[in-house]
Automatic annotation (TrEMBL):
GO terms for biological process: cellulose catabolic process. Its EC number is 3.2.1.4. One of its GO terms (molecular function) is cellulase activity. The keyword Cell division does not apply. It comes from the Eukaryota. The active site is at residue 439. The keyword Hydrolase applies. SUPFAM superfamilies: Six-hairpin glycosidases (SSF48208). Residues 53-508 form the Glycoside hydrolase family domain. Belongs to the glycosyl hydrolase 9 (cellulase E) family. This is Endoglucanase. It comes from Handroanthus impetiginosus.
Length: 522
């Protein structure tokens, strides 16, 4: 009894102490909050799923299934079958996999590798969100479909096959990929005809994918990384643009320079390996040569500078102190913020490249690539800010919060999905009204027809809508005056591509739910 009483008195005091300490801590916390009135909210658990973006993501992901070449094992598209099975055979290589570029049947390595890099990035940042809506596995499978091809396209250290098919020959046919009979010549880069940008982009694709598969298939992940490091060395040592070594490539995917790809690839290799040499690469002389500080650029299959800036900002936000304090890293982050400031409509440095209703609009050809790619970067940056509790960025003295960035990203996504003067969705298969005459050979020809190269043109000329819906195709998009001509031969506005789908998948994955991103990919 006695003992009990004493102990209870003791505990009574303890309780008072605990309460006092609690009050003190609460008061301290309030003072702290007052001192930091703009402290960002702590990122919480992922919020509720936004059905609109979840539905759109599921649709967008299907376009990769439509574009697959090779032996299709689990094919969810009823009008697609095996094709391109002999691609690469003349060089004793299996280049049957990979994806057709757009409405045609070319395999263009430069944009295909970019598609893979962006898809990896989306998975690494937003894999959790993809998983919640059952899209993680399809995304990984589509990524692997490309990286399997890219590995086979790199048979020795300094040789990379960058193209299957001849675009002149390919474009003179209108047939289904399943019925292709035309020659499928191969094009390579090598030490006498180097291609720095295409080798570096392929290195970026394989390095980023090595992170995606690191925990689920470590053998494959190591193989990807081995090819990535070899390709990067090849790209860096033999510096020349493939547009100069092989002028024919200028007609379709002309490269305006390789400095951006070198920085982008080295950034991915740094994330994938943690090796200081890659950090030194992006912060040393190459930064002076290629980083183009402070000048905003459009993120695209040709120019990855803005992507590299955002990817390196990630290190500035979340990296260990010894690297994140680097002055050069800060310059990348400032350049990334210059890109973001250009996008935000209320910013003093807002770009005037916009339609009247607010869509970023830069080019008549494939108009949607810039708004969608820009919105992907904006949602990433917004989530970096949230996850690192960064309250705001400054654009010439005006402050913008993570919600402002997200709002911009949402405005572009909503435009694509139907909130536009045409009241139509530019994502095929989404909503009630979307393009029905998409410039896509496979979609335009009935699945039970097997026209040859030339007699298939009657399907291009037909007045009927496509018999097969190219689910998930993101078409080129509207004119500056926000009109759209839904006509099958209008490839400027009506041709989808795998790289359009990749940036859209990234954007939609970021919008499926509000989120905090992982601090490290590894
Ligand atoms: C190197 O690539 C060029 C351009 O594709 C090609 O013309 C040449 O034959 C290749 N060299 C070798 C040794 O295969
Ligand atoms: C390809 O890009 C280079 C570098 O920007 C440019 O000089 C060249 O004119 C372009 N070629 C074509 C066909 O547009
Ligand atoms: C919109 O722009 C396109 C391309 O410049 C033009 O062909 C078309 O006539 C314009 N439409 C209207 C309604 O102004
Ligand atoms: C389709 O467009 C191309 C390129 O503009 C043109 O050369 C071709 O004649 C057009 N074909 C038809 C059937 O209109």
């Amino acid at each position: 009894m006695k003992e009990k009483k004493r102990s209870s008195r003791c505990c009574g005091w303890l309780l008072v102490l605990i309460v006092l300490a609690g009050v003190g801590f609460a008061a301290f916390a309030i003072i702290r909050q007052k001192m930091e009135p703009e402290a960002a909210p702590v990122p919480g658990l992922p919020g509720a799923i936004t059905k609109k973006y979840a539905d759109a993501l599921k649709i967008a992901m299907q376009f990769f299934e439509i574009q697959k070449s090779g032996k299709l094992d689990k094919n969810p598209i009823p009008w697609r079958g095996d094709s391109g099975l002999k691609d690469g055979s003349q060089a004793k290589l299996d280049l049957s996999k990979g994806m057709y570029d757009a409405g045609d049947h070319m395999k263009f390595g430069f944009p295909m590798a970019f598609t893979a890099t962006v898809l990896s990035w989306a998975i690494l940042e937003y894999g959790d969100q993809m998983k919640v809506v059952d899209q993680l596995e399809p995304a990984q499978n589509s990524l692997k479909w490309i990286t399997d091809y890219l590995i086979n396209a790199h048979p020795t250290d300094n040789v990379l096959y960058i193209q299957v098919g001849n675009p002149k020959v390919d474009h003179s046919c209108w047939n289904r990929p399943e019925d292709m009979k035309e020659a499928r010549p191969l094009t390579q880069v090598n030490t006498s005809a180097p291609g720095t940008e295409v080798a570096a982009e392929t290195a970026a694709a394989l390095a980023s994918a090595s992170l995606v598969f690191k925990s689920t298939d470590s053998t494959y992940s190591s193989l990807l990384l081995k090819h990535a490091t070899q390709l990067f060395d090849f790209a860096d040592k033999y510096r020349e643009s493939y547009s100069i070594s092989i002028p024919e490539v200028q007609t379709y995917y002309n490269s305006t320079g390789y400095g951006d790809e070198l920085l982008w690839a080295a950034s991915w290799l740094y994330h994938a390996t943690g090796e200081q040499s890659y950090f030194g690469y992006v912060t040393g002389k190459n930064a002076d040569d290629f980083a183009n500080w402070g000048s905003p650029t459009w993120f695209s299959w040709d120019n990855k500078l803005a992507g590299a800036q955002v990817l390196l900002s990630r290190v500035s936000f979340f990296g260990s102190k010894d690297v994140s304090s680097s002055n050069i890293l800060l310059k990348y982050r400032q350049s990334a913020e210059a890109v973001i400031c250009g996008l935000l409509p209320e910013s003093p440095s807002a770009t005037s490249s916009r339609t009247d209703s607010g869509l970023i609009w830069v080019s008549e050809w494939n108009a949607l690539q810039q708004p969608v790619a820009s919105a992907f970067l904006a949602v990433l940056y917004s989530d970096y800010m949230l996850s690192s509790r960064t309250a705001k960025i400054s654009c010439d003295g005006h402050h913008f919060t993570p919600s402002d960035l997200r709002e911009f990203a949402i405005s572009q996504a909503d435009y694509v999905l139907g909130n536009n003067p045409m009241k139509m969705s530019y994502l095929v298969g989404y909503g009630d009204k979307y393009p029905e005459y998409v410039h896509h050979r496979g979609a335009s020809i009935p699945a039970d027809e097997a026209p040859g190269c030339k007699d298939g043109f009657k399907w291009l000329d037909s007045d009927e809508p496509n018999p097969n819906v190219a689910m998930g195709a993101l078409v080129g998009g509207p004119y500056l005056n926000e009109t759209y001509v839904d006509s099958r031969n209008n490839s400027m506005q009506g041709e989808p591509s795998t790289y359009n789908s990749a940036v859209l998948v990234g954007l939609l994955s970021g919008l499926v739910t509000t989120s905090s991103v992982v601090q490290s990919f590894a």
